Amino acid sequence: MFQKGNNPASGQGQSSGQQTTGSDAVRRIQEKAAAFASSSNKATADFIKQICEQARREADEARTASQKEIRAAKERARKEGAEARRKAEEKAAAAKKEAEEKSKAARREAERAAQNAKQRAEKEAENHNKAAEDKELDAWRKVEKKMQSIPDEKVPDPEPPSSDSYTVREIPYNELQIQVPPIRSGDIKSVHRALLGGKQVALLNLRRNSVDTEAAVFERLGRHPKLTRLLGMSRDPDGNRLLITEYAEHGDLKLVLGKLDEEEGRTACSRVLLQCAMQVCEGMERITAEHLIHRNLALRNVLVFGFDADNPKAVRVKVADYGLTREGKYYYGGKGVLPLRWMSPEAITRRRWTEKSDVWAFGVLMWELWSAGVEPFAFVSSDEEVAKRIVSGEILPKPIGCSDNVYALMKRCWAAPAQRPTFRELRDDLLDLYVEHSRT
């Protein structure tokens, strides 16, 4: 059989320090078995062959089992890796979602805090403004009360009369050649055309006890090129006081633009409309300088003395109708016939008029200019509903054909009182727009 000293599996019989692999050892054993079988008798050789064949089968089975185990181990490793990746991804997704939810919640909380802070600031500002206004009103009421307590003593005006003021002269009634019917008649007044010394004039018969008040406003404003001039006063046979003013041949601006739209299907060019707005603004600047509040500024109360729809140089308009004009930085009025569609929110809710409420009305007048004289909120029949809309913050839409810059100026007039421009600022802005439109 095998010689014990030559067993290759034992590692003996090899040079010192030399190592063999398993496959090398198997190959050497196979070579020795083959040599041994060839040198032995047949029985021994057959036995060697049998045990070698048995060894090969066992080796093949071992390799097959090992490969199966390797494949199974790889599959387990693959599945475990996939499962680990899936769990890691799910964990990462959950963490990301949680972070996003926390971020959204934080943003919502920040927005709520900012909104609450803004509302508190606005409320606080509103309270401060109201308190300041109330204190100012109380102070002036105290002044008024003290003035009333002075017996038979004339309180002087705070400012001297303007240098261009004039005294209204009395005109005998028989010098007037009155034409009938009236060119305008309403609940408040009627207007007749008349001849005075061969010149056409307008005769105003006011159906209320405010003739002297309106005459005093005329006197105070004096002769201004953008304000209707009072020529004199008269008294009819029934004793009624009459105002005599210059006559506007073209009528009022609402009538002129409406007629242009109806008869020619067009409106005036933008420079003509801007020229009209600038001239009205000049007149209102004079009224404000005299510490007066118009309270009835509208297109119907702008008289036209010269007009060309395409030529701004031909435009001559003047502010008229001082029947509701009052003196003072602030004026608190009662109920009565009021132009609700032109009134600011504070005038509607608190009956409080200032220069800034006239500015609001000027913005509506501009809207009328670019709307061919259409009545504001014409689609709403009820004045009460119009008042609700104005107080709630609704503003008139941009007229067709109106530029963004012009509409932006209108909206500035409809801002909160403190943010509205003065008439001086409006005149400067209108001049800039006029120059801009002249280049296009």
From TrEMBL:
Q: Return any one Pfam family short name.
A: PK_Tyr_Ser-Thr
Enumerate composition-biased segments (Basic and acidic residues): 56-112, 119-157
Family annotation (Gene3D superfamilies): Transferase(Phosphotransferase) domain 1 (1.10.510.10)
Where is this protein localized, as stated in its record?
Answer: Endomembrane system
- Report residue spans for region: Disordered: 1-27, 56-167
UniProt keyword annotation of Kinase present: yes
Which GO biological-process labels does this protein carry? cell development; cell surface receptor protein tyrosine kinase signaling pathway; regulation of developmental process
Alphabetically, the GO molecular function entries are: ATP binding; transmembrane receptor protein tyrosine kinase activity
Q: Which UniProt keywords apply?
A: ATP-binding, Kinase, Membrane, Nucleotide-binding, Receptor, Transferase, Tyrosine-protein kinase
> Per the database record, which ranges form the Protein kinase domain?
177-435
Taxonomically, the superkingdom here is Eukaryota
Q: Which PROSITE patterns match?
A: PROTEIN_KINASE_DOM
Q: Which InterPro entries match?
A: Kinase-like_dom_sf, Prot_kinase_dom, RTK, Ser-Thr/Tyr_kinase_cat_dom
| Entry GO terms, CC | endomembrane system; plasma membrane; receptor complex
Q: What is this protein called?
A: Fibroblast growth factor receptor 1
Protein source organism: Tetraselmis sp. GSL018
